[in-house]
């Protein structure tokens, strides 16, 4: 599934990032890499979604979120 499909207050593990190399490098610099955990804070509105990863809160455009493949994380892991 893609991050864009993620539900609010759910944590996911990044499986792959399918963006341009420049954008992928920028996301890596922010700490969003394959295998990292990302929690969707708010995905209810039509604008950018809000997510938390590496202890910081970010707004991600839906086009970017659509290019990030994630898997659900069991809350007891």
TrEMBL record:
Record flagged with keyword Oxidoreductase: no
Keywords attached to this entry: Iron
GO MF annotations in UniProt: transition metal ion binding
Signal peptide positions (record): none
Ranges of residues in domain Ferrous iron transporter FeoA-like: 1-72
PANTHER family cross-referenced by the UniProt entry: FEOA FAMILY PROTEIN, SSR2333 PROTEIN
Protein name: Ferrous iron transport protein A
Organism, scientific name: Merdimonas faecis
Lineage: Bacteria, Bacillati, Bacillota, Clostridia, Lachnospirales
């Amino acid at each position: 599934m893609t991050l864009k499909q993620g539900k609010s207050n759910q944590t996911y593990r990044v499986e792959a990032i399918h963006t341009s190399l420049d954008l992928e490098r920028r996301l890596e610099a922010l700490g969003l890499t394959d295998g990292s955990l990302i929690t969707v804070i708010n995905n209810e509105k039509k604008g950018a979604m809000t997510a938390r990863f590496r202890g910081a809160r970010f707004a991600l455009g839906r086009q970017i979120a659509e290019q990030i493949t994630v898997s659900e994380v069991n809350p007891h892991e």
